[in-house]
Amino acid sequence: xxxxxxxxxxxxxxxxxxxxxxxxxxxxxxxxxxxxxxxxxxxxxxxxxxxxxxxxxxxxxxxxxxxxxxxxxxxxxxxxxxxxxxxxxxxxxxxxxxxxxxxxxxxxxx
Length: 110
Ligand SMILES: [Zn+2]
Ligand SMILES: [Zn+2]
Ligand SMILES: [Zn+2]
What we know:
The protein is 22% helix and 5% strand. By secondary structure, it is mainly α. It starts with 5 loop residues before the first helix and ends in a 23-residue tail after the last helix.
């Protein structure tokens, strides 16, 4: 069923493993926003991003899912203003981007 190039399939496998490893190491990280705490706004006329409906919008920490207020988590230290270099270790890999131009894999991201 895959019609991607061999190289693309290889990259996809590597990506799948990275995602799997990440969530094994960080099982509580929110999968909707990948730990960022916000998602792209589906409304093109609204703000660029909105609070993630599965964590921050419910006052949950994107990283550990414990209750949090004002975007700061007392459990794991997550803060919306975290240093981007710290944040980078807390967020899941970005969705897979096909390198051969086929679209099917978009369905498999996350
Ligand atoms: Zn989230
Ligand atoms: Zn937390
Ligand atoms: Zn491809």
